[in-house]
Fold these 2 entries.
Entry 1:
Amino acid sequence: MINFVTTYPNVALTKVCESIDFTLDVAKDYLPILRDNIVDTILGNYALGVASPQIGVNLRAFGVLKDPEISKTPTKDDIQVYYNPEVILVSPSKEDALEGCLSFPGVSLLVTRPLSVTLRYYDIEGTEQVETAYGLKARAIQHEMDHLDGVLFIDRVSTLKKRFALKELAKHSKKKGHKMLNTMRQAYARAMQLQQQ
Ligand SMILES: [Zn+2]
């Protein structure tokens, strides 16, 4: 199901998320639902990634495209979901690149981040995995990891840039009525396409 994406300044976006307890029976039942909601919300919004607090779930999980640099339209199989992820290493070299966030419609910001990141996480079966990601994927992972700690991309830039971003967001929200409808239409059309696959 494509979920409604929480936008700034909703308080859900600034909370630290809880770890998932894989030993609970309820986790076994709920994790596939959470995975599907993350996957559908990414595909329905043409996003690179989505973190659970953005869809109103206060748990440590997020999804990103396995290869965000591919040009074909992604499908469910192109998305990787990480549970209880933890950054264990980042590269000393950093780069600046533009980022967007579904919770900040209409805003893009130049954010400095390490070029590569190694993380330990659990897959949906609760098995520990380690991955090193580079480039755009490393950036997407770091952006989504931040969401799990209530950190937003506006917190990664100067006060001046943050002020500018919030103005852009306000401008965008004023036009929301009409934009929102278009976004919903796109999401609906995308959901229909997914059902047919
Ligand atoms: Zn985001």
Note: The mean pLDDT is 90.
Entry 2:
Amino acid sequence: MASPNETPKQEKQKPLPATRRNNKLVRSGNTKRILLLVKELEPVSLDTLVQESALTYPTVLGIIKHLEKDSHVEKIAYAPTTGGRQAVLFGICGIVRYVLALHLNGDEVDITITNIRDGKIFHATEAIPAQAAGENQADKHRSIAHRLVPLVGEILKKTRLELSSLVKICVTYPEGTDIDPQLLSDELEAALKVPTSTIADRIVLNFLERRSYHISSLQRYIFILFERELSLSMYRGPCDAAEDLPHRTYFGHMTMDVAGSACTCGKQGCLQSYVSGNGLLQAYRDAAHQLGSTWNTALEQDDDLFHAVLAESYKGDKAARVAIDQAIRMLAVALANVIKIEGIATIVLSGVFNSTDVQFKRLLELYIAEYLPEDFPTAPVVILGTTSPSDCSYGACLMMNAQYFNQLNFE
Ligand SMILES: [Zn+2]
């Protein structure tokens, strides 16, 4: 007999629309969960998926069949026999879906294609032909896009891929250049009919650095990319994927001295100028003058001034050493300011310094400590990253793949 508390009548009623929607949400959520489990555990058997997902065998089987039909997963191997039947192992479908990333770097473009399983299938560096002089900004972007479109076509032909196999294209770019990435990606998307996004190289390289153990274990840090331009991002934990700095804020153009040396951006006294521009050159000249030494005038033509002066200092040029020391001091002042505001004293430095520059890493740590208040709770730590802008297009592919799986919707 039914107790008065039970409500058998309601069970016979049709599910409410909200319930139906819920069921649908649960189904699509389960599908995505299984797909992500396959990605994480591949090659993986149905039994393992059942264990890991805590769903029933028939549910998992149904989802896998569905995912197989839509070319999201495929049978990739058989488990070793254990006497009984051989279990089929599933993995993410390696064909059908690809991503292509372009890294614009001055007159060159770096191109990588990977499949959705992060497998690199193509990489090349090509020259972007020079554009006609006197073009206005909009024409210039149209012209870069128009020169990139046939390049992408040629590469697809070489790799025997169709445009329709590309799920996404990403353009990565160094900040501080006069390229308007949005305009460029709009042009590319219109011409190639593939969803195209843009992203600053520092964000891509931060993503790539986080795949290494010693960085991924950090909860919070400041990420600096110092190649030709200095750019900075903040990392405040795994949920903080969003871009926190305004689109056109380059750390490198933080003003250090309103009446200082001219910068390429048109302002005066930018950090950029002191670490890799006129300010550095001026410091080098002044030091040479004071030391009574001659200085290498050929450096003035170098578009990568920091490295050029650094190389000079390694050769024993004392004035170059003084200049580099000042550049590091300027970087330390700027970083100490950011650290004071953010309260984060761990800095991942990528690009300009590498493992041979340990002495500069130490100097930077020392100088930052000098510019921090005495009662600042933690000592500054600089960690040298291992990525370089040549990894950008590959890193962007990995980012697009991760986004692809996160954004899949099975409703
Ligand atoms: Zn500037």
Note: Residues 213-385 form a domain with the Nucleotidyltransferase; domain 5 fold (CATH 3.30.420.40).
